[in-house]
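Marked as duplicate of an earlier ticket. Keeping the data here for the record.
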Amino acid sequence: MLTNLTNNLLELNSNENSLGMSDTARQAVIDALNIGFRYPDDQRAALISKVAKINGVNESQISLGSGSSENIRTVVQMLQNQALRAGRGFQVIVPHPTFAYAEMYAVSIDVPVVKVALTPENYAFDLQAMQKAADDFDGISLFYLCNPNNPTATITATGELKAWIEQAPKHHYFLLDEAYSEYVTDPSFESGIAWLKEQRSDNIVVVRTFSKLCALAGMRVGYAVASPQMIAKLEAFISVDNTNVAGAVAALATLDDEAFLALSLRNTNQSRQMVEQVLDELGLRYLPSQASFIFHEIKGDVQTYIDRMREHGIAVGREFAPITGFNRLTLGTPAEMAVFIKTLRMFREKGWV
């Protein structure tokens, strides 16, 4: 398997899966080179069918994206277009901090973004404050909710989130980013896809990616799940033939490779346990991780810590304002985390953390 070592730098900063793509996915890409001159119609159709079957929905409820980032963009763009046609305002409401793509796409097309700070006690979504931001706005609101959240790696209480969405008016939309859902161990977690199947709602879109557990970040494959009516609207803003042949066959091969998926999950769980053990040993607080990264305390200036880690050959995550004193660490392979742990202990000996 490949590792995340590039130019002798251990990259634990971008939530990539440094296990590397599966051998079956790699071979599928090699085999697909012979048809690289063809458009990806057949491969896209096969992937849509496979994804729909896995999620228990109809093929008409799936929209493939060039990474789930494209699916996020289409939701923002479609709703802005819908609002313009109706002569209404449109805003995007995001927790702060969270994954930045919904905000980034909104800003690029002059859609206002309302940032709602996480709760100061446990860095959870402040659902009441987010709802108030929508209630105070005369127009369409889109709530972007990354669950598990990035950078905190925590999940939102299922009952509370589901009740909130069920009570929402039709002009309030929910974009549920479940990029890390495969890593969740909390039995109370429930995917928004289950709610889609229950409610047949037109105001929920769930996006997922092959970049994390499947280790295909560079292949750029993701998808959205929603009602057939919503998918039809989103498809009007998607790039034609957006999923390339290599990405499609790699995703298909990985979905069929149960041994690799189990190994990928097992590696991350083992790495998480290793890091939590050393953080407990050093008395550094961390949030309960339900993802492929961990958000942990640093005693001292975080930017200085980041710079020192890089000087010692390790790239760790950036700061995530307005939260201070914490750093996001990608969970690499157990071998990579052993290197990080050794370095972190050395930092403690020097009084740096």
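See parent ticket for discussion. The CA atoms of residues 57 and 197 lie 7 Å apart.
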